[in-house]
């Protein structure tokens, strides 16, 4: 009898928190020079990649991993540190909105960066979300860096920012990538960004009527099983 009860309760719990078959929640590869996400989902929507007034948004048809990808000069984000970038609104951003009855759990945000050979500055890409706000450096979730002269090798390097500190959400959430170059201010050096991917899972939250229906079915199952045992 205990096995029947356990099976019924397990089935009900799996139904209530049924996970969708999706790991990539948003993906920006800039195919055909588009700023739209290439994810394909019917349970959430993602905005085009946008930018704050302090950062240009330019796609190069010849640069990327593979091309096209975002390309700007160091002069386009010449901020001494994250605080300066925050004040100037030097960011790229996108918003993900779950459909009604869907919850999103974020795993990580990955992206690839490139710094033209000869640029000795340290470039930082710092991640924020609307959950924590964008007001101060303390709201940052994490950052990816290209460090000084040690990472100017001429090819893209992948970075990952873990998002496990964020709660599960059922409303629109914005992510921002703030850039600073440590105040290098060298317009002859270029920075490139490509393959921005938001990973996580989505879970369907059944309507109360559906839960009651499944609960009733589970109770009928247990009663029937008990009678058979007798």
Explain what you see:
The protein has 230 residues and is an alpha+beta fold. It is built from three helices and twelve strands; from the N terminus they run αβββββαβββββββα. It has helices spanning 2-16, 82-88, 208-229, and strands spanning 24-28, 44-46, 50-51, 59-60, 69-73, 91-98, 102-115, 123-129, 142-146, 157-162, 173-180, 190-204. The strands form two sheets. Strands 1, 4, 5, 7, 10 and 12 form a six-stranded antiparallel beta sheet that branches. Strands 2, 3, 6, 8, 9 and 11 form a six-stranded antiparallel beta sheet that branches.
Named CATH topology of the largest domain: Jelly Rolls
Topology as a string of helices (H) and strands (E): HEEEEEHEEEEEEEH
Q: Helix- and strand-based class? A: alpha+beta
Provide the residue-averaged pLDDT.
84
Examine the secondary-structure arrangement and name the CATH architecture of the largest domain: Sandwich
Please tally the β strands and state the result: 12
Gyration radius (Cα, Å) is: 23 Å
Shape: globular
Rounded to the nearest angstrom, the distance between the terminal CA atoms is 10 Å
CATH C-level class of the largest domain is: Mainly Beta
Low-pLDDT segments, ≥5 res:
4-17, 209-223
Count the helices. How many?
Answer: 3
Q: Could you estimate the helical fraction of the residues in percent?
A: 10-25%
């Amino acid at each position: 009898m205990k096995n029947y009860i356990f099976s019924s309760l397990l089935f009900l719990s799996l139904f209530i928190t049924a996970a969708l078959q999706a790991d990539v929640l948003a993906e920006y590869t800039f195919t055909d020079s588009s700023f739209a996400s290439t994810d394909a989902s019917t349970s959430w929507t993602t905005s085009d990649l946008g930018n704050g007034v302090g950062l240009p948004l330019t796609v190069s048809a010849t640069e990327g991993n593979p091309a096209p990808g975002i390309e700007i000069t160091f002069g386009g984000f010449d901020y001494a540190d994250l605080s300066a970038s925050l004040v100037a609104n030097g960011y790229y951003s996108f918003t993900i909105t779950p459909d009604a009855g869907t919850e999103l759990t974020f795993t990580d945000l990955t992206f690839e960066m490139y710094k033209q050979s000869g640029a000795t500055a340290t470039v930082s890409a710092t991640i924020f979300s609307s959950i924590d706000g964008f007001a101060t450096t303390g709201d940052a979730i994490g950052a990816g860096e290209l460090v000084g002269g040690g990472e100017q090798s001429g090819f893209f390097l992948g970075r990952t920012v873990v998002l496990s500190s964020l709660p599960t959400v059922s409303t629109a959430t914005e992510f921002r990538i703030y850039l600073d170059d440590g105040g290098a201010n060298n317009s002859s050096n270029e920075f490139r960004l490509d393959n921005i991917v938001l990973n996580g899972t989505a879970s369907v939250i059944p309507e109360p009527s559906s839960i009651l229906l499944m609960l009733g079915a589970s109770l009928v199952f247990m009663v029937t099983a008990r009678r058979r045992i007798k």
